[in-house]
Amino acid sequence: PGRSDTSVILPVHNADLWLDECLESVLQQDFEGTMELSVFNDASKDKSMTIIEKWKPKLEGSGILVVVGGHDSPSPRGVGYSKNQAIAQSSGAYLCFLDSDDAMMPGRVRLQYEAAVQHPTSIIGCRVRRDPPGSTERYTRWINQLAPPQLLTQVFTAHGPTVIMPTWFCSRAWFSHVGPFDEGGQGVPEDLLFFYQHLRKGGGVLRVDQTLLLYRHHPHAATHSVLETTIWTHRVRFLEERALPSWTSFTIWNAGKQGRRLYRSLTAASRRKVVAFCDVDENKIRKGFYCYEGAQERPKPRVPILHFRAARPPFVLCVKLDLTGGEFEDNLRSLHLQEGRDFLHFS
User: What is the pLDDT of residues 216-246, one digit of tens each?
Assistant: First the structure.
């Protein structure tokens, strides 16, 4: 059949609860081009394979080529490996990533394909609908409402990639240029590492502003298995690599736990650029200084703690968005700063 326009990349591990709905959503795509589904079964022990075999003729009957690979070793090799394998066995010029517990809206492939053809070196995302509806409200709002410039400036936050992996769509050529995914398995944030590599290579980030994915939340998902400290370390390194070189000095906004943790995590060279902490908490400001006890240098660094109005940009913000009832956002807005140039979010 030659190569398809788009391959849907579907790694599967014990997904029998969701697979029917997921595969139904592949069948329902209104994309006019040629489409392929590439499934890689990562040692599932449930009925996943039976469900896939059941759907294969239905999908092929409607013109979707289905490629199924996998292994049945005692233990799974992880999502990085599975995605790489699913991509390797597929042939589409474009890749549409899909998680087995999610479901696509009918226009997903069509609309993201359209965007990807126009932007061949970008990762294309989309808006999502969360299921169950009330779960992770702050995160969902962040995914759906970042402004286009913020897709590049908010890449240092704990939320991770500014377009989320289950919504990714990109050209195979660009994926090959950036990738593959890290195959370290559980405990490796393979999507974050790929996203950073994509940005290092000058890739763009674009979101189709329509809701094209039903994005399921369950507390036991793989997403929750990566240690926060691992991600923290990668984020600090990336901040130091991408943002801090262009600043000769900066202020850390938050003299509390998160701000001090960031300060302690920096290399000595980056740490010397920190001219102050700033805060709204009078008790912290009254202390006047943060003394870094863990320092190798003598005398130990003493960093001033200022009221945010007395501090000077640029700022690295270590305050969680949305958690102060809007007070932090109002304070920030009152300074009339430009995101990216005058401040960056790191929280």
Answer: 987 665 555 568 899 999 999 999 999 999 9
Partner residues linked to 41 by β-bridges: 12, 70
Alpha-carbon Rg of the chain, whole angstroms?
22
pLDDT tens across 287-322, in order? 999 999 999 989 999 999 999 999 999 999 999 876
Query: What is d(CA 98, CA 186) in angstroms, rounded to the nearest whole number?
Result: 19
Structure-token pair, residue 160: 């991770």
pLDDT value of residue 220: 62
For strands 289-291 and 35-42, give the pairing. Answer: unpaired
DSSP 200-215: HTT-EEEEEEEEEEEE
Q: How far, in Å, are 93, 190, 345 from residue 236 at the CA level?
A: 35, 16, 12
Longest Cα–Cα distance in the chain: 74
Token pair belonging to 343 = 């401040």
The helix (run of H) or strand (run of E) holding residue 128 is strand 122-131
Separation CA 343–CA 112 (nearest Å): 31
Strand partners, 289: 304
Residues 52 and 60: beta-carbon distance below 8 Å: no
Q: Are residues 157 and 345 in contact, defined by beta-carbon separation less than 8 angstroms?
A: yes
Burial of 158 (0-12, 13-18, 19+ CB in 10 A): middle
Q: Are 239 and 156 in contact (CB under 8 A)?
A: yes
The predicted-structure confidence for 76-102, as pLDDT tens digits, reads as follows 999 999 999 999 999 999 999 999 999
Q: Token pair for residue 238?
A: 């990336």
Q: In the β-sheet with 94-97, what is the strand arrangement from edge to edge?
A: 65-71, 35-42, 6-12, 94-97, 169-171, 122-131, 204-216, 103-104
